[in-house]
Write a structure and sequence with these properties.
Length: 468
């Protein structure tokens, strides 16, 4: 009864997910993908056994490809034990190495590795091959035939195939455990999230100039608040369906949470304004908000950035500035993508340019803070890393939209104010000054740059100035 109840709850939870979450389910659980391989191996064994015992295909094979029952059992027994040992020792050793690697950089690395498609496919190949050979061994115990051909041949093929997968898997591990390759792979995934979450789902509906008269009518007194029914992280919001539903009901919604935030039960989830007095079916709207116990990267860009931040901070703690600097560069590239692809207006409209949603979204200065503030804090006494951080900030300013230059310069000032100048030496001063000047020149903040140098001189007398 308990298992049936769990299965029912799992099915309900799956049906309540967004389409993108449902598409990712096969890769978000370690057992699902290997289960498909195991099922495929079982079906293939059934077909092979039918051909072997039902059609007697061994009579069509040459004599040197046929084996007697004793030799077949011996071969299959050896392959079964070998495949089981290969699977066990491979993943035991890999998990030990990856766990140590995760402890050094980020505990999320272990989860990312185990849910990587190559890892799941390799595990599926090992399990599928083992099951095929095991079923072949059990069927070979029967005395219905004295000669075998297809079963031992297919079993040997699966054994060789597993060895090839093992070699490729080891090559994958060696590449994946190189921190530069790992962070680059994470960045590619994050860019895909930005592409899907911002460009395809939200950005087409953004409007920079909504109807001001309509907005003035959206007062708290006229609004109706809908409260969250359960607690959990807001994993996804189906914006397309939400806008379509608001069109049908002719309402305007203001969201109080954004994706990635923790929603508390019985707190305001959204407020709506409706022109008519007809009651609103709240459940239709609540179905488009998907919460869960854990954060996911399906729509949560902030969560993706935080994974890079964690790696950089751990690298700083392990006295590994090269890894920290490399990770900062990946964060900078992500921040450039966000600036280029987002208009940063909270207003979403329908095709008729009528306001439908007011979302709770991050501004660009908040993205900067999320991506670089914690690193700035832990690198406040490290001149080399802080210089690299300022150079990345300048690169962001060069690639970002002009409207974000003010936020970028403010973050540079914030970084300078937080630096511990007791660690600053004469050889560092000119490089520090050069980095600030480049940011000021890119963002056109020359006067503010002179004022900032005056402030630094107060904190660190004798700080060398650079003439503009």
């Amino acid at each position: 009864m308990v298992s049936a109840k769990k299965l029912t709850n799992s099915i309900k939870r799956f049906r309540s997910m967004s389409r993108r979450e449902q598409w990712q389910v096969p890769f978000s659980n370690l057992w699902i993908m290997p289960s498909f391989y195991a099922l495929g191996a079982t079906i293939l064994f059934a077909l092979t056994a039918w051909a072997e015992f039902g059609m007697n295909v061994h009579q069509y094979f040459p004599a040197w490809l046929t084996l007697d029952q004793s030799l077949t059992q011996s071969l299959l027994s050896t392959l079964t034990a070998g495949l089981l040992s290969l699977t066990s020792f491979t993943f035991y050793g890999v998990l030990t190495a990856v766990t140590a690697f995760a402890a050094q950089f980020s505990p999320r690395i272990l989860k990312n590795f185990m849910l990587h498609r190559v890892t799941q496919r390799t595990l599926g190949i090992f399990i599928g091959s083992f099951l095929f050979v095991l079923f072949s061994l059990l069927s070979a115990q029967k005395e219905t035939t004295e000669t075998f051909s297809l079963l031992p041949l297919m079993s040997a093929f699966f054994a060789v195939f597993s060895l090839a997968a093992f070699v490729l898997f080891i090559n994958h591990i060696v590449k994946w455990l190189q921190i530069n390759n790992m962070t680059h792979s994470m960045k590619v995934e994050s860019v895909a999230i930005i592409q899907q979450s911002l460009l395809n789902e939200v950005e087409p509906h953004r409007t920079a100039e909504p109807d001001k008269l309509q907005i003035s009518e959206l007062t708290e007194e006229n609004g109706h608040v809908v409260y969250a029914k359960s607690s959990g992280y807001l994993k996804t919001i189906d914006f397309e369906s939400l806008i379509h539903q608001t069109n049908q009901d002719d309402v305007v919604l203001k969201l109080h949470y954004r994706v990635g935030q923790y929603v508390f039960r019985s707190t305001p989830l959204f407020t709506y304004w409706k022109q008519t007095e007809e009651p609103l079916n709240k459940n239709n709207y609540l179905a488009y908000f998907h919460t869960g116990r854990m954060q996911t990267e399906v729509q949560d860009i902030e969560f993706s950035i935080n994974k890079f931040v964690e790696i950089a901070i751990r690298a700083l703690g392990n006295d590994d500035p090269k890894t920290a600097i490399g990770t900062i560069k990946e964060i900078g590239d992500l921040l450039i993508h966000i600036s280029q692809f987002t208009s940063f207006t909270p207003y979403l409209s329908n095709q008729a340019k009528e306001l439908r949603l007011i979302i709770n979204d991050l501004t660009y200065d908040e993205y900067l803070y999320t991506g670089l503030a914690s690193i700035r804090h832990y690198a406040r006494g490290n001149v080399v890393v802080t210089l690299a951080l300022l150079r990345v900030v300048n690169a962001i300013a060069q690639g970002a939209h002009d409207r974000d230059h003010s936020a970028i310069w403010d973050f540079a000032v914030y970084t300078v104010h937080g630096f511990e100048y007791k660690y600053m030496h004469h050889l560092d001063e000119q490089k520090f000054c050069d980095a600030l000047y480049e940011i000021a020149n890119t963002t056109d903040r020359h006067e503010a740059y002179e004022e900032l140098l005056d402030w630094i001189n107060q904190q660190c007398p004798g700080f060398s100035e650079k003439e503009a």
